[in-house]
Amino acid sequence: MTIHTWVLSAAALAALTPTLAQAHESVFETTLSGSQESPVNASTASGFARLTVDPHHLTMRLEASFKDLAGTSTMAHIHCCTPEPFAGNAGLATPMLEGFPLDVPVGQYDHTFDMTQASVYTPGFIAAHGGTATGAFDALFAGLKAGEAYLNLHSSAFLSGEIRGTLTPVPEPGNAALMLVGLIGVGRALRRRQRHALA
Question: The domain at 24-170 falls in which architecture?
């Protein structure tokens, strides 16, 4: 590698590093439907959820909306962790989500949780993961990153859950774009090096 190529590579890495350091939040999204329930149901209701987890500040923001429930909302939970989110059921990671709209067929939700609080998790989830809120958070975050956690919305028409969806990681486009720019720069430098070697 020539000094020129090395400089370009180092510059690309330097440009990428601050963004990676700042991009400490992880985002997970899902659509909610009866077809994702286990067992599957014929509900025509739908919903959407976005979960933003900040592992440095230990917060979790859940934004959700739902409409056209066959019944009215009775409860909502995050379940974790199952390797087959569409084929089976996982235990409760959270109790009833604080402030979730109840007794309605349509609703919206936006709440940020302090993940250091034991009340955010079910006692069983804490006990299964070291007996601490820290252990529970680590397990939930790992389950989310592995696609093993889902949001389940229960209703008066479907007591075990009317609509649900697996929360899946959302790629960070900013980081991908910067990495691509860096790789393009390195590629150009290598081509120039090859041309000089052939000259």
Answer: Sandwich (2.60)
